[in-house]
Amino acid sequence: MRVFALMLLAFGLLFVALSAQAQVATARGKASVPYEGSVFGSKASPEVKERAMREAQVKAVEFYYAEAGEAESANFDAIRERVGANLDKFILDATVLDEQDQTDKRVYTVTVRTSINVAKLRNAVKAGSATAATAKGDKSKLTFLFVSRQVDSEKTFDDRVYQRVDRGVKVDAQGSDKRRGSEGESIRGGQIGTNASRSRDASFEAKRTDTIETGGSTTRKASESTWRIFPSANLNSVFTGIFASAGFKVLEAGFVEPYTNGLMKIKNVENDYKTGNDLDPATLRDVVRGLQAAQVPYLAFGTLDVGLADVDPASGLQRVAVTVTGKILDLTSGIPENISTVGPVQYAGLGPTEAEARGNALKKAADSAARELVSQVTNLGLR
Asked: Which of 37, 156, 276, 363 is deepest in the core (most CB within 10 A)?
C-alpha cells in the first residue's frame, strides 16, 4: 500500500513538473559581435560582451519559435523588438555555455542556454493580434467540432490471387515409305504358273516440345475500421480556453445546434467519424449552411485519434499516443475557405493507468493543436 502511495506521489510530482515545463522552455542561442580595437588593447569590452549576451538570448527565443513551426515563427517577428527591449520579462535565466574572443578578427562570440517564459511570450503575441484590439462586441464568433476516438474494430481482407497457365505443344514429324515388287508367269505343259513378291520399308520420326508459361495477379484490399467515440467534455474546456484567449467569441457546438435550422447535427458528425477520417460532403454542407444561418463565421473541427497503450521504458508508466488533425473554415463567403490547418501530429501522455495516460495525451494534443490553429489565424489578422 505504501509503495502504491509513493508511486502516486511520484506521478503527481511528474505531472506538476510536466505542466510547469509546458509554460517554460529551454533553448540555446549564439551571437557574434564585432568590435574595434583601441590603444589600450584589442579585447572585447564589457559593453561588447553585454550586447552579445543580449543578442544571444534573443536568438534563443527565435530558435524556440523556429522549432514551434512556421506560424509561431511569424508571430515572433511581430514581437521581436518588444522581446529585445524587455528580456528580463521573457528570459527567466541565462547560462553562458561558451565564449570566444577572437582578438585577431576582433569578434566576440557567446553561446547561452536560456529558460524562456513561454506564457508571457504567448500573452505578448495575443496582445498584439488584431482580435485582441477588437472590441468585445465586434469579436468573431467561432464554434468547434472536435471528436476524440479510438479504433473499435478492424476488418481485414485476405489477398485475392489470380493465376493463369498457358500450355503450348509443338510436334515435328518426319516419315518415309518405300515399296518394291515383282510379278512373273511361266508356261509349262499347258499350265500357267504365276509368282509375285512384294517388299515395303517404312520409317517415322516424331519430336514433341511442351512449353508452359505462368502468370497472374494479386489484389489487396485496405482494411476497414470502425471507431469508438470518447466523451469530449474535458476537451471542450481546452479548446474553449485557447480560442477565447486568442480573442474569439467561442460558442460551444451544443449551444449553437438549436439555432442552425436543424441543419447542423452533432450526432451526424460523430457518426461520420465513426466510419471514416472525413466528414461526408453532405454532412459538411449542412454544418456550413446551419452555421451561416446562425451567423457563426468560423468553424474549427477535426479528430483526435487515440492509439493503444504501451509501457514507457523510461518511467515504467502507461503511455498513450494521440494523433490530431484539424482545420478552421471561414464561412463568411458563399464557398467556405480553409484558413488554418494542423496535423496529422502525434502527442504522447503518461499515467499510472491507461485511462489517465489517455486523458493526459488528449489534453496535450488538444492544447497543442488549438494553439497552432490560433497562431496561423493570428498571422491573418482576423478580428
From this structure: 363
